[in-house]
Amino acid sequence: MHFPKLSRRVKIILTTILAIVSLILIFNQPIKNELIHSFRPDLTAQSMEKNKNAKATYDYGQVKRLTMSNVAAARANAKDLKIVGVISVPADDITLPISKGITNRNLALSAGTFRPDMKMGQGNYALAGHNMANLGPKVLFSPLYYKGKVGQMVYITNLKKVYAYKITQKQIINKYATQVVANTPHQRIVTLITCDQTGAQRLMVRGKLVKTMNYHHAPAKVRKALSQKYNVK
Q1: Using one digit for the tens of pLDDT, what is the confidence trace for 46-73?
Q2: Among 24, 76, 98, 152, which residue's Cβ finds the most Cβ atoms within 10 Å?
């Protein structure tokens, strides 16, 4: 007669334990950092060129707050990410791969491209990235919010060319202001989008193209910045 009560009690205990373990994993920043930090894909100019033609999803509206579960899922399926470049903002200690498209998986490990027609050094090269303000100011695109300033340099590369942009604008915008990522055929700019501290609005950092270089002829400090470990500490 006591077995039903015992069974229910065991279920409650097991459910509670699972909930606690899940919370520990979700909010354990060192584990989350290590999952992202240890992501070092083998990048080549050839693989990036091939990935430019891959199919991708562009769904910024469905991107959610970064959790342990989607970081783990991204790492488990990291081979599916279509890396098309690398971005570095040396003054903000940002170095990240650029994935084609925007999904929760892409943005867990990289910056994502807003449009399928984008080309480095042409028009508006617009990228999205997570602001992990609730977990620390150094993760993914978080440093843009805390340290980004007009005059800083942004470097983007496909390992063939390096495109150098100078930041000209840093502004909080409405989260529905999608026109800022539209193409600008007569302006060669970069637009970086992330959340503000609350997640209710968006931070836009924009820069203009000032120089294009062959990758192997770029200054050593620029190539070093583009090859740094990804900023997740």
Answers
A1: 999 999 999 999 988 878 777 767 777 7
A2: 98
Q: What's this model's pTM, rounded to 2 decimal places?
A: 0.81
Structural domains in the chain, CATH included, are 3-226 (2.40.260.10)
Active site residues per annotation? 130, 195
Written as one letter, the residue type at 147 is: K
Cβ contacts of residue 189 below 8 Å, gap of 6+? Answer: 123, 124, 125, 165, 206, 207, 208, 209
At residue 217, φ and ψ (nearest 5 deg) are -100, 0
pLDDT at 200 over 80: yes
Q: Please give the angle made by the CA atoms of 66, 42 and 165, to the nearest 5 degrees.
A: 70
Phi, psi of 230 (to 5 degrees): -70, 145
Percent of the chain scoring above 70 in pLDDT: 79
From its phi and psi, is residue 93 left (phi > 0), alpha (psi between -120 and 50) or beta?
A: left
